[in-house]
Amino acid sequence: MIVRIMGEGQVRLADDHLTELNKLDDELLAEMESGDEQGFRQTLAALLDAVRRLGSPLPDDSLEPSELILPAPDASLDEVRAMLSDDGLIPG
Q: What does pTM read for this prediction?
């Protein structure tokens, strides 16, 4: 799976990491619904760090279609809310 972090670039991520990322995505969704700005910031950072840690960066000149687009680390609650689907940021 190709994942784009807005403002940073793309990483190739094995599908078997989706379970770990979905846990963080569920936490992020709960924090957004409750308006927990501090929790939201921490969990968004943890989610993006996990993608960076588990994935392999693609070269900057690579133009692969992204299967998943994640917000920039400094995205606001409202910006992330606009990116959400029924499943959160990560499907499944």
A: 0.90
